[in-house]
Amino acid sequence: MNGWVDRTVGELVLERPSRSKVFEKVGLDYCCKGHEALAKACADKGLEVGIVVQALEALETSPEPLEFDTWKESVPALVEHLVSTHHAYTKEALPRLMFLAEKVARVHGPEDTRLIELRNAFEIFLQETVEHLQKEEMILFPMCLGIAAGQAAGHCGSVSMPIGRMEYEHVKHGANLELFRELTDGYLPPAHACNTYRALLDGLHELEQDLHRHIHKENHLLFPWVQKLEQAI
């Protein structure tokens, strides 16, 4: 078991992305907290590390989906994948979920004030996330593509500066996702939940899973890759 518990959660997912399904199921953050060793991550969540290791080992006999290989070929391929897959999904999901959160808070908020808190928190999260995506697409990603083409950052400074800012904002995203999960009892709908309420919880859960994969690819693949390339220029 030592071969698992001393390795970081982010490293394990980077090596085999399908392991993220195990971490999603037990509630381990492999993106913003991907630097933590598996043993510590489990201890912090009150999880039995042996059970998590058993689930990870059960994956080893199944083939890895080929989809996970294509965006690892180059920095441009990875950037294109992030924008066309994760950025596109997030831009579509945020206003849709905001609409649902508004409606659910209006109808069910008087009985459960957590839904009003959820709506207010999500409104701030939406604005911050849209600004975050814009900064990546307009500033960071062009720098990454330039470095991949052998161009120094020049007057813009080291790519580590915008990367540091994005990593800081990723931590805030992770904290918001944890708040959404807490306010909704782990996205579990109550017996009286209407279809709109259930659609909101399902959508928030899907958003959480996508953002975990999204942030993981940036924090543990794109950012170290580009920083290493910049050092070699």
Summarize the structure.
The chain has 233 residues and is mainly alpha-helical. Helix content is 74%, strand content 0%. It has helices at 2-5, 9-15, 20-26, 38-45, 49-59, 67-70, 75-108, 114-148, 160-183, 195-232.
Tell me about this structure.
With 233 residues, the protein is an all-alpha fold. The protein contains ten helices and no strands. It has helices at residues 2-5, 9-15, 20-26, 38-45, 49-59, 67-70, 75-108, 114-148, 160-183, 195-232. Helix 7 (75-108) runs antiparallel to helix 8 (114-148). The longest helix has 38 residues, at 195-232. The protein is globular. The termini are far apart.
Could you report the average pLDDT, rounded to the nearest whole number? 90
Number of helices: 10
Distance between the termini: 40 Å
Strand content: under 5%
Structural descriptors:
single chain, mainly alpha
Write the layout of secondary structure elements.
Blueprint: H1 2-5, H2 9-15, H3 20-26, H4 38-45, H5 49-59, H6 67-70, H7 75-108, H8 114-148, H9 160-183, H10 195-232
